[in-house]
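Notebook entry, structure prediction.
Reason for the run: the old model in the group folder had no record of what sequence produced it. Starting over properly, with the input documented here first.
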Amino acid sequence: MPGEADVSDDEVNNSVNGGAAETRGGDARDQGEFTSEIYKIEIQNLPKFYGMGQMKKLLNKKLNLNTCKLKPVGKNFMFVTFRNEEDRQKALTVLDGFSFKGNTLKATYAKAAQDPYQKKKEETVVIDTRPAEEKIQEKVCPLAKLGYEEQMEKKLSEIVTIVKQMGSQVSRANPNLDPIIKRKVSNHGVLAPILEFLKSPVVRGYRNKVEFSIGYMNPASKVNKEDENNGTAQEENKPLEIDFESAPNISVGFRLASYKQGSVEVVSLSSLDKPEDVLPHISPEMIKIGVLFEQFVRASGIMPYSSLTNQGNWRQIMLRSSNGGGKKQMMVVASLDPKGISPSKIDQVRADLKEFFKSGAAECCNVTSLFLHLAPAKRQQGVSEPAPELLLGDPVITETLHNKSFNISPQAFFQVNTEAAEVLYQCVGDLAELSDTSTLVDVCCGTGTIGLCLASRVKKVIGVELVADAVRDARKNAEVNGVSNCSFFAGRAENILHDVLKDIDSKEIVAVVDPPRAGLHAKALSAIRNNLFIKRLVYVSCDARAALKNFVDLCRPESKTCKGDPFIPRKIVPVDLFPHTSGFELVLLFERVSQEEIKKFQTETSEEEIMALEKEQNEVKDELMEMEKEKNGGEDIKIKKEKNEGEPMEIKKEKNGGLEPEKEKTAN
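New structure, fully documented this time:
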């Protein structure tokens, strides 16, 4: 079914890189820049059911149309954009009148959407006069002002709401599970018992990975300390204007909003008073590097990239830290868009970076790995991004988890809270109920952390990961730790998981899924659901709301696309990996539920309903008896009847107006 979100590769790239390359509609047309909004069409009369993957395959492969992005916006129509007028005209000719799933499509020109940044600028907004510290804390770590126990309570309330929502959606998707769901809700209040909320062992400076944006800060955002002390400080809510001819306020820090929200401003770390208190989840060492790197960018002669003007080159700086083997390590990856920069200038940047971190102002930061990432702000479709280039030090940093050593490359996934990750992986292993005859399939395995930590408890571990560098790290990690029962495969889970599972000879497979924020691809989830040897699945979610569809799809009834018994959540364990923020990890144990178990619950439910009905009928009888008792002056109707039957005939006749009882009945 179509959704409402853009699904192009460009859009995915934009969201990953902080929205640096957003579409800008007619405003970009005036500047002579490319934007897909210029070359836009509308496709009408689409069928009721179709998949976005199916639609992309139809347009790009079968019909050879060079689409830029697809955007479903209604029940039976969508917008499609292109990179030039020639491609748009071809699409209009091909699609208008084309038959798709029995529907005749209609293709027409579509008007470019208004630039969201300009739209926000034109709106009347309330001026936010709060200090920069307060605004950035609300954006980056909104719970920092609360005590840790209060933070946990707030998150637990959110978790209960999500699990209740999951219960109602599962019930609608698979009504056969209703008896089980009702019993679980009766016993636990929700679909599955929520076990103890596991705390993070450390709450300050816990992040081992941070990305600072490089951009511009509005001068109006900087409050003069003297004015602030006098109580006369004011802040104007002016839009950010960048004048490359003058000296714009270059900043390294965090963005307060996105382009579509009407702001591209980056609040500088150097503008914050006591930044380690404003951002308690980031270590002082990382904040110091960010502040010093701002000075380097200003002195480099190269401007930060701006999505307002499509000019500039510096994009972001990523920091990763570790403490493997008791040795502190720090990795720095500086990202630069090479557009318009000569090779000699890039060589100069390389040399300056090495000097800055080796013997310059940042020498005190003890950087052990330094990379330059030449990453275009606007990636061309079908062109892969180059890997970061090592300038100085080691190609990886190492970290220790559960007494095992792990190599971490610049683009590899690794949990951002190392000490809490140990708690998380222990929880995963306990829920999985592993044995020495089990095969553990680790989907989205990253550098192999989960699989390697649990390898001693199973017969074999098989890991699947998209990032090739991470797979190389995982293999090396297995070798370094002397683990011989692990195999790792590189590729998209949705493309290779089916074949990987097909080649497993074990009949006792336990799957562990730790996917990106949006959840697991439908094809990968289908491969797990359709492998009947997978009886147990542990799903680790960092965004349970985004992954709700995955949870529900696992529980759907058996069909052509969903083979075997459905899964159902049995236990849920929250783990706090992100103190001071609203984020948390949710670990869910799913197990198959057999038809026998469903029938058993249905039978028990029927018996309970009969007992409840009998109880209700008895209560009604008792209520009627009480009403009769009140009518008879408080005397029990049964006792009164017995008394009447024992009276002499003469007395009964007298009470009945001289008639005998039987005659009185006849007269009546």
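Summary: The domain at 209-228+236-393 is CATH 2.40.50 (OB fold (Dihydrolipoamide Acetyltransferase, E2P)).
The old model has been moved to the deprecated folder.
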